[in-house]
Amino acid sequence: MPFSPKKPCAYPGCGVLVDRKHAYCAKHERERNAGVNANRQSTDKFYNTQRWKKLRAFYRRQHPLCEECLKEGRVNPSIIVDHIKPIKEGGSPLAWDNLQALCWSCHSTKSLNDRHRRGRGESKVQRSQ
Ligand SMILES: [Zn+2]
Ligand SMILES: [Zn+2]
Fold first, then answer.
1. What is the bridge-based pairing of β-strands 6-8 and 99-102?
2. Ligand 2 ion: Cβ-proximal residues, 5 Å cutoff
3. Is the pTM of this model over 0.70?
4. Would you list the domain boundaries of the chain?
5. For 74-111, how does the pLDDT look when each residue is reduced to its tens digit (9 = 90+)?
6. Burial readout 92-128 (b: 16 or more C-beta within 10 A, e: otherwise)
7. How many angstroms is it from 35 CA to the middle of ligand 1?
């Protein structure tokens, strides 16, 4: 049997000895993973809540047409309800005035612009008109 050195779990105050390749004991490793997953899934969870589904349905009933297309004089049915300021950027998930009804085309354009904007570090949408 080769000698395998052990070191204490990296969780403050834990002190359980673990194999060198693990930074945490089994219990704290599990807790850490659970925390990371909870963060990642919190937005997904929101989109599954009844509150959001009701708000979205109600908003679409009021805005059956894509709002971006209407601004350009086009008439397209809205497919999705989008957050003007994304939740992950601190936008309010249930605020009526943070919502807009979009068609797929406008939604994918907006997602692209958002990524572009963040890349250049600008905070406002540039409009050519
Ligand atoms: Zn531990
Ligand atoms: Zn549109």
1. unpaired
2. 66, 68-69, 76, 103, 106
3. no
4. 6-40, 49-120
5. 999 999 999 999 888 899 999 999 999 999 999 999 88
6. ebeeeeebbbbbeebbeebeeeeeeeeeeeeeeeeee
7. 15
